[in-house]
Amino acid sequence: MKVAVLKGGRSLERQVSLRSGARVQDALERLGHRVVPIDVGSDLVVQLAEASPDVAFIALHGRDGEDGTVQELLEAMGIPYTGSGVSACIRAADKVLAKHAMRDRGIPTPDFYSFSETAFEALGAAQALPAIEDRLEFPIVVKPATQGSALGIKFARTPADVPQALVAAFSYDRKVLLERYVAGRDLAVSILDEDGAGGPAKPRALPVVEAVPQHEDFYDFESRYEIGRTKFVCPAELEGAVAARASELALEVYTLLGCRGFARVDLMLDGAGEGLYVLEANTIPGLTETSLLPQAADAAGIGFDDLIERVLAAV
């Protein structure tokens, strides 16, 4: 097939997207497809019209790529594309929407409150912070509502830390999330749609990956993408029942948000090793050398080229 690989873009995750896109491009070429690499910008529609691809492989992360924007554009142009559709991307990209949906369904997710800039500027939301802090208890995680790769996330360990953490989060987004901190282990469950043997595709949970930062307490942006900053354990060393529950929760979130093709669900396992909490879902997980989806696929016996072919086949 003629495949347009959409990468780069204008989000803060541009460099990660370029790395993901380059790996995808190499894999598609090895698989015998004709590849048209596109660094997404203001001429995207022109480039797509000139290329006239059979399908678009979306390797964009963050703004425009994971929030339904480019998906909506591709649908308007009649170009099939990899991954989740518009509505699922919108729900998953907005952590507040996703967490409300999870809470309504009874899926465990850390307690949270969310406010827009307007709430602080016009409604005096800052005056409610002491009550919120009492309910969530310290430390509190403050994060932008729609950024990925841990961008803009700050820990507030005392009330004095909250204002600065809010300013940092608002520099990334107009809506922020204050979330109860769960001390424990960072886990990720990647989901891959498998051929339904003539019927609808069936999502499969790949082995659980644990990310163990080597130099920080927090699995931040640098820990995710700089080789050597994080130790990855896959399959994660978990009790069988805990691993099964993590996979079950990830599949439930995947279905709840309406994802398709592939995705990754991030969870925390509390320090006691019993309570699992879903943090978020990523509809276009990273495909770099240090990304978790390729590691999980490899542990399941699925090489990178095979993974890319399966994602393409699920369109």
Quick summary of this structure?
The chain has helices spanning 14-30, 44-51, 69-77, 86-93, 95-105, 117-122, 129-136, 162-170, 221-225, 240-257, 292-299, 304-313; strands at 2-7, 34-39, 55-58, 112-116, 140-144, 154-156, 175-180, 184-196, 199-205, 209-213, 230-233, 262-270, 276-282. The protein is of the alpha+beta class and 315 residues long.
Tags for this entry?
alpha+beta, 12 helices, 4-stranded antiparallel sheet, 6-stranded antiparallel sheet, 13 strands
Terminal Cα separation, in Å?
12 Å
Indicate the percent of residues in helices: 25-40%
Report the major sheet: 6 strands, antiparallel
Low-confidence stretches: 219-225
Question: SSE string, helix = H, strand = E?
Answer: EHEHEHHHEHHEEHEEEEHEHEEHH
| Principal-axes shape call | globular
Q: How many helices does DSSP assign?
A: 12
Quaternary structure state of the chains depicted = single chain
> Averaged pLDDT, please?
90
Strand content: 25-35%
How many strands in all? 13
